[in-house]
């Protein structure tokens, strides 16, 4: 698919993606990689059904076929607030300049460090609900949930996106840590017949990270 991506009024790029992922998280991961975006963002697209008005993208399947125009909108960190100053107030301009410089050189998402154990992110509502029920069943009788393609894709895309924000080139040990942390937090995802319960998750994460260099 050929994309026209608007990052700013003076920064509009042409991007060709051979295969569009099934999930929004996977699509964001490609854009983050190809466009070197070090921040959280919302994707909007021109919807031909509404005279090309911009609409938030919820799923890549909503995009028009072959060509589309996207607008990337940066999300502001939750702890970043507007500062209002009364006429009688004064500002320490040196402090503000220093803080501004620090923010520009170190985007919030790029300041994260690889934690041990790896902190598994929150998934979408539907995925979290499935995992909650699966974990309850596992605690009761040791049963695992069936990990269908859609569920696995959502989990992998979310994990790889989090990994990429911390380190674009994680080591095999770090990838293994993520797989271990996943099944420890969500034991219903442990692999049947596997001694460690996470080997295939490690393989899938490794493969997914490797795909980034091909996009």
Q: What features would you describe in this structure?
A:
With 215 residues, the protein is an alpha+beta fold. The chain has two domains: 2-74, Ubiquitin-like (UB roll) (Roll); 110-212, no CATH class. The chain is built from six helices and five strands. It has helices at residues 24-35, 93-105, 125-141, 149-166, 172-185, 199-212; strands at 2-8, 11-16, 41-47, 53-56, 67-74. It has a five-stranded mixed β-sheet, with no helix packed on it. Helix 1 packs parallel to helix 4 (149-166), helix 4 (149-166) packs across helix 6 and helix 5 (172-185) packs across helix 6 (199-212). The longest helix has 18 residues, at 149-166. The two termini are 12 Å apart.
Number of strands: 5
For the sheet with most strands, the description reads: 5 strands, mixed
How many domains make up the coordinates? 2
Gyration radius from CA atoms, angstroms: 20 Å
Class computed from helices, strands and strand pairing: alpha+beta
Helix content: 40-55%
Fraction of residues in β-strands: 5-15%
End-to-end Cα distance, whole Å, is 12 Å
**Average pLDDT number:** 82
The DSSP helix count reads: 6
**What form results from the Cα inertia axes?**
elongated
Helix/strand order: EEHEEEHHHHH
Strand order of the largest sheet: 2-1-5-3-4
Spans of at least 5 consecutive residues whose pLDDT stays below 50 are: 80-111
